[in-house]
């Protein structure tokens, strides 16, 4: 709490001090009393305001903040509700006359003051306002700024109430068309041992977090005493690795992350086990140890959460980061995997590493190119496409900023 004199308070203080000084000089007791009374009023209001901090003591006010949805996708709106609650009569006294103001990062507010709808009750004051998540990341919201005046309007005090919250913003994604019948044909499913639907126990497996409850086999679950699900529908779905080469330019990075994430989600929705390699991972992340995430809500959330904090790599680390992802894939893939890559112009060592993926794997690639690049950079992009096609990949050029769905369908329509 930082009490400060208002203009009225400053004027009253000057007038009171002047009256006391003038009264002493003239020997006018009444004038001294009037001036002293004015000064006592200012001092008393200042002290009372400082002691009645709404954020401290037994009668402090509590702040509850909710964001819906949370996390939110970049480019999408979210609704924020803040409630300041008083638990007792003394707290309700502090609540009266408060002026509330909310703080938010420019990535959420657009750099403009927030406009909130205020809802007051006997026990609480609520604020409701929209924010627009402009960029992927974690952005600060709050704390609440509380301003109050004493009853005479001579002292103003401002303080921060509640804690600062962070809103997690997922990358912007597009629902891409399901690739059934294009990436995986029916012969692939037969070769991989796809089974006909069966309710036999041999076609059942233990329930795992993220499984669709509609696939639970309730009769077998009751007999076993634990939840089991049918595994026949996904038995022939080939695992998919989405390989990302992250650029350094901010706009190109966000576009790459959005397209790569959208591709991974599209493959999950089609029923494939999916892992995403390239972006740095936490030590305990699924993709850090080469594991494929099985389709389900949990896998989608984990994948999106992982992309929140991804940053552009240093120039010296970008190539090594991609090579590490390729080596991880080579050390864990089964030889019947689908690899979907979104890369920039690649150097000879990286192209050589990618050549090893062509053995037993089905490769699809988009290679970034940009008219603003130098002639040498555009030439390297063309050389990368030609090299991948010679290895049996299906590769096509894309430009950062292209429509995500158009880029996806362009890749699916390419030939080796």
Task: Explain how this protein is built.
With 416 residues, the protein is α/β, with parallel strands linked by helices. It has four domains: 6-51; 62-170, Immunoglobulins (Immunoglobulin-like); 186-194 and 237-412, von Willebrand factor, type A domain (Rossmann fold); 201-232, no CATH class. Helix content is 35%, strand content 23%. The protein contains twelve helices and 18 strands. It has a five-stranded parallel β-sheet with strand order 15-14-16-17-18, sandwiched between helices. Strand 9 (144-149) and strand 10 (155-161) form a beta hairpin. Helix 1 (7-26) runs antiparallel to helix 2 (29-51) and helix 7 runs antiparallel to helix 8. The chain is elongated, with a radius of gyration of 32 Å. It starts with a strand and ends with a helix. Residues 185-202 and 282-289 have low confidence and may be disordered.
């Amino acid at each position: 709490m930082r009490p400060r004199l208002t203009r009225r308070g400053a004027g009253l203080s000057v007038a009171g001090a002047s009256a006391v000084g003038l009264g002493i000089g003239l020997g006018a007791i009444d004038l001294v009393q009037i001036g002293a009374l004015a000064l006592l009023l200012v001092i008393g209001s200042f002290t009372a305001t400082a002691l009645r901090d709404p954020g401290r003591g037994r009668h402090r006010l509590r702040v509850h903040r909710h964001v819906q949805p949370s996390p939110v996708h970049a480019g999408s709106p979210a609704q924020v509700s803040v409630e300041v609650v008083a638990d007792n009569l003394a707290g309700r006294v502090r609540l009266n006359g408060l002026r509330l103001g909310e703080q938010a990062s420019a990535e959420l507010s657009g750099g403009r003051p927030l406009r909130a709808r205020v809802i007051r009750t006997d026990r609480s004051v609520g604020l409701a306002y929209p924010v627009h998540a402009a960029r992927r990341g974690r952005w600060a919201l709050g704390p609440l700024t509380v301003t109050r005046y004493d009853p005479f309007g001579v002292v103003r005090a401002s303080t921060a109430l509640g804690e600062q919250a962070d809103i997690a913003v997922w990358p912007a994604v597009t629902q891409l068309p399901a690739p059934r019948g294009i990436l995986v044909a029916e012969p692939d499913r037969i070769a991989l041992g796809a089974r006909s639907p069966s309710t036999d126990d041999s076609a059942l497996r233990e329930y795992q977090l993220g499984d669709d409850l509609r696939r639970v086999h309730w009769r077998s679950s009751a007999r076993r005493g634990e939840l089991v699900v049918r595994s026949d529908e996904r038995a022939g779905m080939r695992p998919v690795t989405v390989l990302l080469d992250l650029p350094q330019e901010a706009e190109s990075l966000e576009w790459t992350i959005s397209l790569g994430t959208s591709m991974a989600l599209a493959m999950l929705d089609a029923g494939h086990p999916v892992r995403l390699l390239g972006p740095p991972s936490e030590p305990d992340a699924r993709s850090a140890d080469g594991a494929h995430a099985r389709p389900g809500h949990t896998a989608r959330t984990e994948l999106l959460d992982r992309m929140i904090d991804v940053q552009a790599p240093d120039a010296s680390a970008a190539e090594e980061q991609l090579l590490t992802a390729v080596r991880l894939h080579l050390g864990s893939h089964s030889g019947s995997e689908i690899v979907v890559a979104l890369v920039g112009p690649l150097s000879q060592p990286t192209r050589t590493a990618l050549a090893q993926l062509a053995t037993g794997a089905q490769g699809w690639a988009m290679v970034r190119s940009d008219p603003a690049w130098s002639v040498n950079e555009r030439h390297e992009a063309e050389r990368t496409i030609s090299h991948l096609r010679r290895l049996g990949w299906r590769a096509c050029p894309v430009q950062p900023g292209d429509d995500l769905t158009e880029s996806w369908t362009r890749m699916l329509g390419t030939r080796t």
